[in-house]
Amino acid sequence: MPAMEAVVHVLKSEGVDVAFGCPGAAILPLYKAMERLGGIEHLIVRHEEGATHMADGWARTNGRVGVAIGTSGPAGTNMITGLYTAIADSIPMICVTGQAASAKLHQEAFQAVDIVEIAKPVTKWAVQIKEAAQAPWIFREAFRIARSGRPGPVLIDIPVDVAKQEIAYDPSIDAPLPVSEVRPHPPRVERALDMLLAAERPIILSGGGVILADAAPELAELAELLQIPVQATLMGKGSFDEDHPLYCGMTGIQTSQRYGNASFLESDLVLALGARFGDRHTGTLDVYRGERTFIHVDIEPTQIGRVFGPDLGIVSDTRLFLRALTGLARERGVSRTPGPWVARVQELRRTLTRREDFDDIPIKAPRVYKEINEFFDDETYFVTAIGLYQIWGGQHQKAGKPRRYQVCGQAGPLGWEIPAAIGVKKARPEATVVGVVGDYGFQFLVEELAVAAQYDVPFVLVMLNNEYLGLIRQASLGYAMNYEVDIHYDEFGSDNVKIMEAYGCAGTRVSDPAQIRPSLEWAAKEAQRTSRPVLVEIMIEREANTPHSVSSIDAVREFEPLPEQV
């Protein structure tokens, strides 16, 4: 059969039922195979970076491997940002690129670029198919690698002459390659339990690895059995219900709560699950580490000790570790009731809060998140990216279930939300999907609204518009400058409502906090009625700030909010 038909058989058997991309001359053999065999829905994007973010959102939502497709040359280079985002956040994804004919690669042929070498730093594996007979097996291995250990992206480059060939392949006797389980070494589980039981003020730090392993139920079971408070990292947000009495917030220099920082600073042991100790979480390491004992559990061995050496490192899938630890505790007959430490954490949570019930005009950002929390339920899927609104989201927005709060945490590419929301909605067509965006990042990949309109992909966009590059403006104050951060050029800057209408979508602008809730209600109904994206643009105060970025959580030990938040 044609080599690309073999590839399509592999894609379908690996659970791919939708792909995102755009055709070009060098990748047409794959598109022909997709047309002939069917079974994979395809959304034609307006920019290849958009395709990668759609595949990313799709994969974050259902845990499968997302697929983005592009042709040769700039199609591949346009995908690099999406690959970087996926590897930074451990998202399984495969990018497929067409390539000039093999014999022309050394002759600077049209759109011939060594995309494999370009992509290597931002992928788990980047490979070019040099022999047509390798095609199905390289794709099998790509899916195995994308899923294995710490998940991540793979790039496969296919020269057009290779793609046109026929090979011997029988899909009826083929299947996905197995992914090995990473189980904890029992003596280390024993040691971890001993350390937890000896600690007076332990906390569990739930990272993105808990969500990737679908380990939220096991986390809740352990926390309740041993009565250990739980914090989440930004990537772990949603892994533990934020309304649970054992939840004790987020620690960090930006996306954090006051009670989270305070709880962390009073703890004496941290059990970190699938967390990478990112710098915005830790701040200055000597303060973060303090006199605390650390147990670090991660599926990727080289993550342990990368930022600092823990007192105990355990290589394991987080779900398998939690099952082993809980099972061991039950074998020993260990079960606890809430004690003084849990009471202390709950007291901090009651007292060290940030105000949200502002009625001011212009609107203050925390009020927006108060309305979001009260209107949307915990089955809603949220996507958000980078800037002041990511920080406000970390501080104020609640997440009750895994995979419902999705954020491009480490790479932080502007424009991620619109394509990611498309991917989420394609993965969960029945769900309500909401993108929380800023006025600047909204325009980076705004052209992907056309994709949502073309394929009837409805979602709600909530924009916090301060007409500035808000976070950069705030950071620039440290340089005694205020240069090139104002994007306001008429009454509204860009008329974002008209932009939505130009794409066949709808929108409304809100300046009064009393109108936020009715506008959210209208947007949710309008998106459902039209099967198109709908924007609620909320004009917030232009000088809005988050708590000023600091280099150490020690600086927030006695932290007081800025006047805007009092």
Automatic annotation (TrEMBL):
Key words, A-Z: Lyase, Thiamine pyrophosphate
Signal peptide from the UniProt entry: none
Domain Thiamine pyrophosphate enzyme N-terminal TPP-binding: 3-117
NCBIfam families xrefs: PRK11269.1 (NF008431)
All copies of domain Thiamine pyrophosphate enzyme TPP-binding, residue ranges: 386-538
The protein's Enzyme Commission number: 4.1.1.47
Taxonomic superkingdom: Bacteria
Domain Thiamine pyrophosphate enzyme central: 189-325
Identification of the protein by name: Glyoxylate carboligase
A Pfam family reported for this protein in Swiss-Prot or TrEMBL: TPP_enzyme_M
Keyword Coiled coil: no
InterPro entries assigned to the protein according to its UniProt record, in alphabetical order: DHS-like_NAD/FAD-binding_dom, THDP-binding, Thiamin_PyroP_enz_cen_dom, Thiamin_PyroP_enz_TPP-bd_dom, TPP_enz, TPP_enzyme_TPP-bd
Keyword Lyase: yes
This protein's encoding gene: gcl
Root EC class: lyase
Molecular function terms from GO: tartronate-semialdehyde synthase activity
Family membership noted in the UniProt record: Belongs to the TPP enzyme family.
